Amino acid sequence: MTSELNSAHQTVWRYRTTRQEWTRYALWFAGTLLFVWCFQVMTAQTIWAFVSDAPRQAVDISSRMMPPDWASTSDLLWPLWETLNIATLGTLLGVVIATPVAFLAARNTTPSQWLTRPAALLITVASRSINSLIWALLLVAIMGPGPLAGIFAIALRSIGFIGKLLYEAIEEVHDAPIQAIRSTGAGSAQTLVWAITPQVAPTLAGITVFRWDINIRESAVLGLVGAGGIGMKLESALNTLAWPKVSMILIAILATVAISEWISAVVRKKLI
């Protein structure tokens, strides 16, 4: 009899308590309500007739794009060259500005933890917070349309990317070469040049090539807002509904990006 009572009062093991189960259900319910509310907000101005017709429109436009306008290839060579120049010059300008910013942001090289480091970090965050297309919109309004606005847009966007990766690399340099240089009586500037810079130089080269690869893709669309490059040709073709030319431009952009990615991979493999 006693053993039966003891077994009746034994606690049955459960993965979660009743309270935890109800809390879990409540969280799922709240999450579902939040999802439904967000979906309603995002689709409040959606015209569902267009959405339902989208597959038919996609097939129709795709058929209009074929065959690509191969005869326009010669007209795309100069815009492609301009796009490469925008990406390359923008990347180089970004490196020139980002390198001192990175040294000011790194804990082990900054002159002041309370003044220059926060200022340098603010520059990198501000640069990364704004997309290159928005930078291009602002610069086209300030400087007027053309490749120069595109170069500065790419540079301003690159500063944050290069600066962040570079200052993290600077903070991770080995201390032994620094101590060896200092033991010779070298000052801060000499330590920076002969102990820290040689350690981060390969990393900077790799980051630069990687960013150049990204910038080629980004500079291809800057022309949509008037910042030069092949994007201006694409906008013109879209406005005139020249679909075969649009497909040719997309093929040219795809080929350029593929080649730049291959070059980037080869160079980074040699450097790192």
Automatic annotation (TrEMBL):
Belongs to the binding-protein-dependent transport system permease family. NCBIfam families: PhnE. This is Phosphonate ABC transporter, permease protein PhnE. PROSITE patterns: ABC_TM1 (PS50928). Keywords: Cell membrane, Membrane, Transmembrane, Transmembrane helix, Transport. The chain crosses the membrane at residues 25-51, 86-106, 248-267. InterPro entries: MetI-like, MetI-like_sf, PhnE/PtxC. SUPFAM superfamilies: MetI-like. Pfam families: BPD_transp_1.
